[in-house]
Predict the 3D structure of the following.
Amino acid sequence: MKEVTAVVRPNKMSVTKDALDKIGYRRMTAIPVLGKGKQRGISGELNFYIQPKLLAKRYSTGMKYIPKRLLSIVVNDEDVDQVIKTIIGVNQTAQIGDGKIFVESIDEVIRIRTGEKGELALK
């Protein structure tokens, strides 16, 4: 099993969720996060108003953190490539700020309610 963690634009979360749902991955964890990278705070991505004087200041000093969504999905090994392709397919704009995907091995999954382990806990 693998954990696929993606950091995506907030405005892409709905289409990402729908695309993953279409390939059978309805279970996921999504968390609003703040981060920074090469993008350095493109204001067009923000969902709230920024006062013009603060916007002017941002261009001179750079915004420290911008809103993103962190999406975590535990998948079977054979589904990792399909999940990654799906996430890239709906999030790739060829612009700085499209996000990142991380893949890590998961040793065990246990459903708390039933005690089921492994692939049974993912169903």
The two ends are 13 Å apart (CA to CA).
